[in-house]
Design brief:
The complex is a heterotrimer of chains A (323), B (397) and C (581). Chain A is mostly helical and 323 residues long. Chain A has 13 helices and no strands. Chain A has a domain at 97-286 and 304-316: MetI-like fold. Chain C has a 6-stranded mixed sheet with strand order 13-20-12-19-17-18. The chains are: A mainly alpha (323), B mainly alpha (397), C alpha+beta (581).
């Protein structure tokens, strides 16, 4: 078991390193470098300025050299500076990570709260009207473009009804009298992005719960439990749902992997200062260090979480053994 | 089935006892899934609309590209007059094509006092400034062999826009119809192409195993772990035209579409590859493979003859679901301005164009989104139905 | 099942339709009065929230280059001279602009080279936010830092054009600037910022030798709310990168104290939601870095129809939208073809139909606000829309109308590729409009759009566009077009792709005039010279002028003293005059 974990961990590290090089290379393939971006903003920059700046940033070096320079910086714990904001990347990433974490957690919890009961309901009454309706809703959730949903939500709730703010993180310049006031204010801004993010996962989770639950309820021990005269509630929750939980846990673990990578379009649409928006603006603004760090974080999260879910499998289900 | 009727005749019993072919079973099973059937019809409808776009253009007389900058952002169900430039161009073409007949028409127009131009050569141009109905009336009164041509020109003086006009006064409905071509075309093309790539890679990995398998599957895992949206944004910004082999196929007009297909393919073959690898791994150990191997079948024959037919069904499901996903990605990238470039319409870039003015013209943002939703839902239902149909566990006999 | 499916379709459609139509109905009427009352009740000189839609960066004036940063920099930092809202150069931190006439500036001969010496005297009460006076050495430090090879200054020449700054021994505020070259535009120091010596010199001494050491450790990065860094009407009190910046009046400001007690600049990256944020009171005004023109036009109409308490300001600006023609293109080599292209653009209709007349048609590269502007037909050639003239020129050039409506010559179609930046709505509109116009005279134009970074980073820079590139130059009044017109500035692999003469326009007479103009100190002569250049420019049509962009902003009616400038120095340059009544 330990050797398995170590081996997988080592493999994961190798994949992360290779992927970071790929990302680095891809970023370099993008035409135009930071200096050219400056030119387009300021036509008075001369050719001498351009050559000087390019040398300054080491942009005249080949990709692999720059990559090694970057990696050696990273390995000493120096994540580098944001070229746009001239502050350490860590200082930028932390608040963004926190914001994204809040949004993703809220959306994950919200979707679980909605999806699991829906899924169970369907599994208990398969092929009923309710089942079909939930099924359709789930399919719609999976199929709807989240940015479009965001726009529609803004039109309805922010523009026409005026109930919720159209975007942002908190009321600007607000002085909070208490943590409760702060939470209420920030919560108000969270609702629309959270809902537009959740719809898709609600669809996925409820379908998943339904099939897991159906599978579980088909087991023989359920029949036995029923035959024993246990109450319906006990059968459903203690015997059925518990067994449906195992596959559910893995899918939730997988959703955790995206908890720090943020939702690029949704965050941009709602002006939510999270990692997704940071990645987008750093790619567009050619802020190398920020983009690379965000890439590495989200890639690592995905790989580590799939490792964790593999291990979890073994813990939850003793039938699975590691070779 | 039919147990309520014990007195079956022989033919009926024979019918019942006859083994159903697999496709028949699947087909019957599929028919059970009503939503999937509806989905299939919706898709069929959209495909018909997309294919017959030029026909619709001809019948309605509307054109997806012709603009009318004085009538921008018109609400649905409005009647709009064509711009002077459009009319004059039509007249000029007419004059260029029928120089002799024009003189007769001009003289008649003036003599019948239908128009009173300063110079006689301008008679037709003046006629072009009339309202549609007046212009048609005028055509009735004059005597010429080119009556039908003139009537056709006059019919273009006014257009009716069921879904209103967009930011350049173009007909929204026609653009949506042409957008259907692009968006669904991209979706289907990407799904098919990535299925082929996935089939190839999955087959290689599953059949040969060993280091081939390890390398290919690590690549697959790695690609799967990449944050898709940021990577797509980066790749979309790269100028693919620099790659020499692509330069040959891509012409300037549809470059952005092919680029998009290309990019989406790179990042969407992985799930098919995994699926194919899995099935081939298990097939490899089966007796019938061993049998044909002892009979001297080559690897190629083994894979294409014996293994592919067995993975076809699950792949079909995966392709169907992939179409919906690709449509969503096309929309998302175009929404960020990195996908299909104007003036080619796609649902995604129509949404992108509309988002700035969602308060003034929300309709423009709502309709393409709804279409994306309907088509994706339909593809997802179709995939679901197919899955149920080929899944022996879900069979209800 | 079927009915549920249909039901959902109907339901969403209805929901959406309700969402769309409600705004015309009573929904907004109620909402709008609520917003109007709440915003008018809230809006006072106590606080003003400005919405911007572009990202901003670090506020070190030596390094910053984004327009949103410049926007805020002008609230906190002042320079010796600047351009006012009327387009004239005026002194700011300086008592007056030195000139040759009264001897405050003179041309001297040093070692056989002509140099310029000017005396700038800083206002007596000009001081940094912590009370230290602004002195000559602050400017000298800026030159020193900017000149260091370890610091990544963008536009270096502004600083390095000044060889030395020497303070009067008796008066630390009287500075003698020696300029490297004797150029007439020496006084245009709008982007030459002083650096607070008492704070930044120590940082530079300590970290200046490390690469990027200075900018990482500068107080502008480490302690950006230190009032000693700023000498303008406001100081920064809170900065949240990527979200907002808060400003408070600077009690040590040399001029009138600003009237608004607190200003917040809030970043809302999605321009589509700016308006909703304005109406929900998240922001009070939309700055010139906000709405696209189309949105502003639509909002303007809505204000009128719904009687809202806002006004939309339109200000013609120095941003010149045009099409660079690649003169190496075989068809474009013929000046008749270029003229025909120019004749077939109906600029009046273009601006009236697409911009409702809120942006002005362009006839050449100099904007109407510039003292150098002329529209005298005797001095420049004016192209009035005439499709018939265009067709005549094309016929004359041998391009005959083909059966498919596209002109042909020697078996080749008259086709061009019009490239521009993808995602710029207005440009894409104009592009499609032009395509249509040219189609009518038998010229086929296909469009090809690229992301801005590709377009500017590769395509225009390396002249990779095959025939037409649509973009804008941001100019300022009295700015020599040398880098765009002279032969030396045609980008080639040889010169490392330097210069902005993307057209490949080679006219040695224009070169001569522009070179001479650099050292011409008489304004009238300069004007005559530039008119001569414009004559060549309009005669030879290396560029198709389109229109000048307008800056737009939305402000509440109560806000007074707010004036858009229409040039590179934004409206915040006079922010101390803003007040809510």
């Amino acid at each position: 078991m330990l050797t398995f974990i170590l081996r997988r961990f080592f493999q994961t590290i190798v994949v992360i390193v290779i992927l970071s090089y790929v990302c680095f290379g891809l970023m370099n393939l993008m035409p135009g470098d930071p200096v050219e971006l400056m030119i387009s903003a300021n036509p008075r920059i001369t050719q001498e300025d351009v050559t000087r700046l390019r040398e300054f940033y080491g942009l005249d070096q080949p990709v692999y050299k720059r990559y090694f320079a970057w990696v050696s910086d990273i390995s000493t714990g120096d994540l580098g500076y944001s070229r746009t904001y001239r502050i350490p990347v860590t200082e930028m990433m932390l608040p963004a990570l926190l914001a994204t974490f809040i949004l993703s957690m809220a959306s994950l919890i919200f979707s679980l709260i909605v999806a699991i009961p829906l899924g169970i309901l369907c599994a208990l009454k398969p092929n009923s009207k309710v089942d079909y309706a939930v099924n359709l809703f789930s399919f719609a959730g999976i199929s709807v473009p989240s940015f479009w949903l965001g726009i529609v939500l803004i039109i309805i709730f922010a523009v026409n009804l005026g109930w919720l703010p159209a975007g942002g993180y908190q009321t600007t310049g607000m002085q909070y009298s208490s943590w409760f006031a702060e939470m209420m204010d920030k919560g108000k801004y969270l609702i629309l992005p959270m809902v537009s993010l959740s719809i898709q996962s609600i669809g996925r989770f409820s379908r998943f719960t339904r099939s897991a639950m159906l599978e579980a309820m088909r087991n023989d021990f359920i029949r036995t439990a029923k035959a024993k005269g246990l109450s319906n509630q006990v059968v459903i929750w203690k015997h059925g749902f518990r067994n449906a939980l195992i596959p559910l846990i893995t899918i939730i673990a997988i959703s955790f992997s995206s908890i720090f990578s943020g939702a690029l379009i949704t965050e941009t649409l709602f002006a939510y200062p999270g990692v997704g928006r940071l990645i987008y603006s750093s790619i567009i603004g050619n802020d190398f260090n920020v983009a690379m760090v965000s890439f590495v974080i989200s890639v690592s999260m995905v790989l580590l979480m799939s490792l964790v879910s593999d291990i979890l499998y073994g813990v939850v289900d003793p039938r699975i053994s590691y070779k | 089935m039919n147990t309520q009727n014990p007195t079956l005749n022989k033919a009926q019993i024979a019918q019942l006892e006859k083994a159903q072919s697999l496709t028949q079973i699947v087909y019957n099973q599929f028919k059970e899934h009503k939503a999937a059937v509806i989905g299939a019809y919706v898709i069929l409808l959209f495909i018909i609309v997309a294919v017959s776009a030029p026909l619709i253009e001809k019948v309605t007389g509307l054109d997806a590209d012709s603009q009318n900058v004085f009538n921008r952002y018109r609400p649905p169900m409005t009647r709009v007059k064509a711009g002077t430039d459009v009319r004059e161009t039509a007249i000029q073409r007419f004059i260029d094509q029928n120089p002799e007949e024009v003189i007769i028409i001009q003289n008649q127009l003036i003599s019948q006092k239908l128009v009173s131009p300063i110079r006689p050569e301008d008679a037709l141009y003046d006629w072009a400034q009339l309202d549609k109905n007046k212009a048609l009336d005028a055509v009735k009164l004059i005597d010429t062999t080119k009556k039908s041509d003139l009537r056709q020109i006059a019919n273009r003086f006014e257009s009716f826009h069921i879904l209103g006009t967009d930011e350049l006064g173009r007909d929204v409905m026609m653009r949506l119809i042409y957008g259907t071509r692009v968006s669904m075309g991209v979706g289907i093309l990407v799904a098919l192409a990535s299925a082929l790539i996935g089939l190839f890679i999955g087959a290689l990995a599953g059949f040969y195993g060993g280091w081939v398998d390890t390398i290919l599957m690590r690549i697959t895992d790695a690609l799967l772990s990449l944050p898709l949206m940021p990577v797509l944004i980066v790749v979309a910004a790269i100028d693919l035209q620099k790659l020499p082999f692509l330069n040959q196929i891509i012409s300037t007009g549809n470059e952005s579409i092919f680029k998009l297909v290309f990019i989406l393919c790179i990042f969407s073959w992985m799930s098919v590859a995994r699926l194919v690898r899995g099935s081939i791994l298990s097939l490899r150990e089966r007796e019938f493979i061993l049998a044909s191997r002892t009979l001297g079948a080559t690897d190629y024959t083994l894979i294409t003859r014996h293994m592919f037919p067995n993975v076809l069904a699950p792949m079909l499901v995966s392709v169907t679901l992939g179409v919906g996903e690709s449509i969503l990605f096309e929309a998302a990238l175009s929404f960020l301005g990195l996908g299909v470039q104007p003036p080619t319409p796609s649902w995604g870039n129509m949404l992108f164009n509309a988002q700035e003015l969602i308060y003034q013209a929300p309709f423009l943002a709502v309709v393409p989104g709804l279409l994306i939703l309907f088509v994706t839902i339909s593809f997802n239902y179709l995939g679901d139905g197919l899955q149920d149909a080929i899944d022996p566990k879900a069979m209800r006999r | 099942m079927k009915s549920i499916y249909l039901g959902l379709v109907l339901f969403t459609t209805l929901l959406v339709a309700a969402g769309c139509t409600k705004k015309e109905g009573d929904g907004t009427a109620a909402g709008q009065t609520a917003v109007a009352t709440s915003s008018s009740a809230k809006l006072s000189n106590n606080e003003l929230k400005i919405g911007i839609s572009q990202e901003f960066e670090n506020f070190n004036p030596l390094i910053a280059s984004m327009s949103a940063t410049t926007y805020m920099q002008h609230m906190v930092s002042r320079t010796l001279s600047t351009i006012d809202a009327d387009g004239k150069w005026v002194p700011r931190l300086a008592k007056k602009i030195p000139n040759l006439a009264d001897g405050s500036a003179k041309i001297v001969d040093k070692g056989g080279k002509k140099k310029l010496v000017a005396v700038w005297e800083i206002l007596d009460n000009a001081s940094w936010g912590d009370g230290n006076p602004v002195i000559c050495e602050d400017f000298a430090l800026a030159v020193k830092i900017a000149g260091a090879p370890t610091v990544s200054v963008g536009e270096k020449e502004v600083y390095t054009q000044v060889e030395s700054i020497i303070a009067d021994p008796k008066n630390p505020k009287k500075c003698t600037f020696t300029y490297e070259k004797a150029k007439w535009d020496f006084y245009q120091l709008g982007t030459f910022y002083p650096m607070p010596k008492h704070l930044e010199e120590a940082v530079f001494k300590k970290y200046g030798s490390q690469k990027e050491g200075y900018e990482k450790n500068s107080l502008y990065s480490k302690d950006p709310t230190n009032p000693g860094l700023y000498n303008g009407p406001y100081v920064m009190t809170e900065i949240q990168l990527g979200d907002h910046v808060t400003f408070a009046p600077n009690p040590k400001f040399y001029g009138d104290q600003p009237k608004i007690k607190k200003i917040i600049v809030k970043l809302i990256p999605n321009t589509g939601t700016l308006e909703a944020n304005l109406r929900s009171g998240t922001i009070d005004i939309i700055s010139s870095l906000g709405l696209a023109l189309d949105q502003a036009l639509a909002f303007d109409k809505k204000i009128k129809s719904e009687n809202l308490n806002y006004k939309v300001l339109f200000q013609p600006s120095a941003v010149y939208e045009h099409i660079d023609l690649n003169l190496d293109n075989p068809a474009l080599k013929d000046v008749r073809v270029r003229k025909a292209l120019n004749y077939s653009i109906n600029r009046e209709e273009l601006v009236n139909s697409l911009f409702e007349g809120k942006q002005n048609p362009a006839i050449h590269s100099i904007t109407p606000k510039d003292p150098w502007f002329t529209d005298d037909p005797a001095k420049v050639t004016i192209y009035k829309y005439s499709s018939r003239e265009a067709e005549r020129l094309l016929d004359e050039a041998g391009w005959k109308m083909g059966a498919d409506g596209v002109r042909m010559k020697d078996g080749k179609k008259l086709t061009f590729t019009l490239m521009t930046t993808a995602g710029n709505k207005t440009r894409e509109l104009v592009q499609v409009y032009l395509q249509n116009k040219w189609k009518q005279v038998g010229i086929e134009v296909v469009s090809k759009n690229e992301p801005a970074r590709v377009f500017f980073g590769e395509t225009t820079k390396k002249r990779n566009f095959d025939s037409m590139a649509l973009f804008a130059w941001v100019s300022s009044p009295e700015n020599s077009p040398k880098s765009q017109f002279t032969i030396k500035n045609i980008p080639t692999a040889k010169n490392g792709w330097s210069g902005q003469n993307y057209m490949g326009w080679a006219n040695s007479k224009v070169d001569d005039i522009l070179n001479k103009m650099d050292t011409e100190f008489k304004p009238e002569t300069r004007i005559a010279m530039i008119h001569e250049v414009l004559k060549y420019y309009t005669d030879e049509v290396p560029v198709l002028p389109l229109y000048y962009r307008s800056d737009v902003a939305v402000i509440p009616n109560q806000l007074k003293g707010y004036r858009l400038t229409g040039h590179q120095f934004p409206e915040t340059d006079e922010i101390e005059k803003w007040t809510v009544e």
